[in-house]
Amino acid sequence: MDIIFRGQHLTISDQFREYASDHLNKLTRYLPIADHAIVDVRREAKSSEGRFVVQVTVSANGTYLRAEERSFEMQTAIDMATEALSRQVKRFKETKLLRSERRVAKDERLPIEEEAEIRPPMPPDAELVMGRVVRIKRFPMKPMTEAEAIRQMELLGHNFFLFQDADKDTLALLYRRQDSGYAMILPEPE
After folding, report:
1. Do 22 and 79 touch, CB atoms closer than 8 A?
2. How many CB atoms lie within 10 A of CB 185?
C-alpha cells in the first residue's frame, strides 16, 4: 500500500513516517485491496502547544475509509486512527459478506420519499451574500446503487454523499435527514 504524507505548517519526521507506515501496513492483512493511504497531519491550534490532528484516508478499490484523531503526540494520534480504521475495515468486510449472501432486488431498495418543499420567494430587496470557496475536492466517481452510496457515506462518517447513480445514469446527492432517514436530490431532466 502506498502511503502519502502531508503536513500543514509542520515537518513530518522520517521516524514518524516509518512508525505510521508500520501501523497502516497492518491494515493490508485484513484489507488486501487497499490501494493507498493519505495521512494529513496538522496542529489544532496555531501555537506549538496545540494537539496534533491526524486524518487518514484509505482507498480500497473505490471505497474510502477515513479516520481523524487528535492527541498531543503524533504517534498516539496515528495509533488511535489505525484503531478506528481497523473497526471500519471489520464493519466493511461484514457488510460485504452479508451483501454477497443476499442480493437486494431493485424493487426492494430503499424507497425514495417525494417531498415537495415549497419555499416562499425571496423579497425583492433581499440580497444573497456569497461566501468564498476555501477548498475544492476532486475524486473519481464510479457508478453505484443507492444502497452502496449509503454504505460509503456511513463508512466515511459524512452527512451527505455525491455519487453517480447506476440506475438513473445521473449524479445524485444523498443526505441524512434529521429523523435518521435518508433522502436524495436528483437533477430534473430538461
Report:
1. no
2. 11
Task: Give, in words, the CATH class of 141-190.
Answer: alpha beta
Do 27 and 34 touch, CB atoms closer than 8 A? yes
- Which three three-digit cell numbers place residue 128? 444573497
Instruction: Record the cell numbers describing residue 55, joined without a space.
Output: 486524518
Three-state secondary structure call for residue 9: coil
For the chain, residues with pLDDT lower than 70 are: 46-48, 96-134
Neighbours of 32 (CB within 10 A): 10
Cell numbers found for residue 162: 455525491
- The per-residue pLDDT for 57 is 92
The residues near 144 (Cβ < 8 Å, ≥ 6 apart) are 152, 163, 164, 165, 166
Please report, in angstroms and rounded to a whole number, the separation of the first and last CA atoms in the chain: 44
CATH number of 2-101: 3.30.160.100
β partners of residue 178: none
